[in-house]
Amino acid sequence: MNLTAIAIIALICWTIVKLTDRSKKVKPEASPKQADIHNQEMLHQLQSMQERIAVLEAIVTDEKYNLKREFDNLGRNKAA
To answer: What is the average per-residue pLDDT within 36-42?
Structure first.
């Protein structure tokens, strides 16, 4: 083997070792303050989504919505 091949093999081995070492490192836990902030953000998003779902449920269960949908279906059936 020549010197270039040895250098390439050494570089490949070094890269493999570095990649495997990186995956073994344990990531530090988030501080309690950061976790609280994250939890508050998630609660806010959850409440927002619940409000949006309630609005959508009200729209879909509204009698006018059902009546409009039935009229649309009748119009499509006549056109066909």
So the answer is: 90
